């Protein structure tokens, strides 16, 4: 009876029959159920109990299958009449064993699912407990602006727990809430006034110190003897028979007694250049309290004066300009003066050039006595002396002979008499009138 025969495995044990799951309807072996129950639970004791229950059910089913096989093998040797009754008995035994095995498997599956559900519930409960223990946020957090109608998460809104914030601000060194500090406004104002007074006093002290330093520096640089120009520290060079050293030193010593920083070297040079015949002048400061003056000068032959101005121009015997001076500021005593319409044009005229040669050759005694010079033509150059005598020189030829004739006539009272003009333009026949 092939329909009732039970196949045996090579090991002689009855293979495990699949059991239907109450939820999915699929067959789940008992060992797989045990493993899933073991992995789903968090406690080892529950998974062991489920595994032992499943193992015991499988062992019972195996024993029942072995009994059924033994009955079937014995019935095969019975007579044909007893075969039907034996087959029915075997079938009932197999059905009973299968039913009990199925019930045990279902029970083990339900136990495994229950254990897994309990484990999940315990994990959820622990997570909720940790979330409840979390300290509430009391620090204000800036949330981004949302558009109208947009979803707003209340968990991200700033906390309004004023009590918790106050406790946190007033917490002591060990975390215990302390009493807030009470501010004494009167003492605070008094302390503020003292601080302001100290600040003002410090500023005044700094300003006074700075002012004292500036005053000391000014005194040191401009009034102390450290930089004071002493007269014995003034030196001069370039003096000659026309521009004396006394003239140069007189101008330079006007700056004595001043601080060397206040000495105007430009003013000294300007005053030296007013001496007739000085072509250049320089003043050099010698720190800390010295001054050196140098000039370049020569005797001018005459001074040219324009009628439209008060400036006199010193020129030499070769009709070269030496310098220009102010006639009212500097004396031109001892220098003949020639009145011209224009200095530049006059220097190019032959008559003025001859007059300069004659005047430069005259002795100083006669030059100092000249009060007027006329140079209308080159043959009629005339000089007028302070005693009223006029000398007509003519041109600049035979100048030494002419000066000798004039000197002899003027020094002989019997010859000059009361005459007021001496004409030596013709040396062979001098004329006295």
Please provide a brief summary of the model.
The chain contains twelve helices and twelve strands. It has helices spanning 30-40, 44-75, 81-133, 162-169, 185-223, 245-252, 265-272, 343-347, 350-361, 364-369, 399-410, 413-416; strands spanning 234-237, 278-286, 290-297, 302-305, 311-315, 321-326, 337-339, 370-374, 381-385, 390-394, 421-423, 431-432. Helix 1 (30-40) packs parallel to helix 3.
If you compute it from the alpha carbons, what radius of gyration comes out, rounded to the nearest whole angstrom? 72 Å
Low-confidence region ranges: 1-62, 70-81
Structural class determined from secondary elements: alpha/beta
Order of strands in the sheet with the most strands? 8-9-10-11-12
Order of helices and strands: HHHHHEHHEEEEEEHHHEEEHHEE
Number of helices: 12
Number of strands: 12
Keywords for this entry:
433 residues, 12 strands, 5-stranded mixed beta sheet, 46% helix, alpha/beta
How would you explain this protein's 3D organization?
The protein has 433 residues and is an alpha/beta fold. The protein has helices at residues 30-40, 44-75, 81-133, 162-169, 185-223, 245-252, 265-272, 343-347, 350-361, 364-369, 399-410, 413-416, and strands spanning 234-237, 278-286, 290-297, 302-305, 311-315, 321-326, 337-339, 370-374, 381-385, 390-394, 421-423, 431-432. It has a 5-stranded mixed sheet. Strands 6-5-4-7 form a 4-stranded mixed sheet. The longest helix has 53 residues, at 81-133. 20% of the residues are buried.
């Amino acid at each position: 009876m092939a329909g009732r025969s039970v196949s045996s495995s090579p090991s002689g044990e009855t293979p495990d029959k699949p059991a239907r799951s109450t939820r999915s309807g699929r067959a789940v072996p008992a060992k797989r159920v045990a493993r899933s129950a073991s992995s789903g639970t968090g406690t080892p004791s529950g998974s062991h109990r489920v595994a032992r229950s499943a193992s015991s059910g499988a062992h019972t089913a195996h024993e029942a299958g072995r009994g059924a096989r033994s009955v079937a093998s014995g019935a095969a040797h019975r007579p044909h009449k007893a075969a039907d009754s034996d087959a029915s008995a075997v079938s009932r035994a197999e059905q009973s064993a299968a039913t009990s095995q199925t019930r045990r498997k279902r029970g083990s599956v339900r136990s495994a699912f229950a254990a897994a559900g309990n484990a999940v519930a315990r994990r959820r409960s622990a997570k909720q407990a940790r979330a409840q223990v979390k300290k509430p946020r009391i620090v204000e957090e800036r949330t981004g602006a949302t558009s109208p109608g947009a979803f707003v998460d209340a968990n991200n809104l700033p906390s309004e727990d004023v009590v918790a914030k106050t406790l946190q601000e007033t917490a002591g060194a060990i975390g215990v809430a302390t009493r807030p500090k009470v501010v004494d406004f009167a003492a605070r104002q008094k302390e503020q006034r003292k601080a302001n007074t100290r600040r003002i006093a410090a500023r005044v002290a700094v300003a006074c110190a700075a002012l004292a330093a500036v005053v000391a520096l000014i005194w040191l640089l401009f009034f102390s003897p450290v930089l004071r120009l002493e007269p014995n520290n003034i030196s001069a060079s370039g003096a000659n028979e026309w521009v004396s050293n006394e003239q140069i030193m007189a101008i330079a010593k006007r700056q004595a007694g001043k601080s060397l920083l206040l000495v105007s070297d430009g003013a000294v040079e300007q005053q030296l250049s007013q001496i007739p015949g000085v072509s250049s002048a320089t003043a050099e400061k010698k720190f800390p309290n010295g001054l050196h003056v140098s000039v370049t000068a020569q005797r001018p032959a005459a001074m040219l004066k324009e009628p439209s101005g008060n400036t006199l121009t010193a020129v030499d015997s070769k009709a070269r300009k030496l310098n220009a001076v102010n006639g009212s500021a500097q004396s031109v005593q001892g220098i003949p003066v020639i009145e011209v319409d224009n200095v530049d044009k006059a220097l190019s005229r032959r008559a003025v050039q001859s007059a300069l040669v004659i005047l430069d050759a005259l002795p100083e005694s006669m030059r100092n006595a000249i009060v007027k010079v006329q140079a209308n033509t080159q043959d009629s150059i005339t000089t007028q002396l302070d005693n009223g005598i006029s000398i007509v020189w003519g041109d600049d030829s035979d100048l030494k002979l002419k000066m000798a004739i004039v000197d002899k006539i003027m020094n002989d009272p019997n010859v000059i008499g009361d005459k007021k003009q001496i004409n030596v333009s013709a040396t062979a026949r001098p004329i006295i009138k």
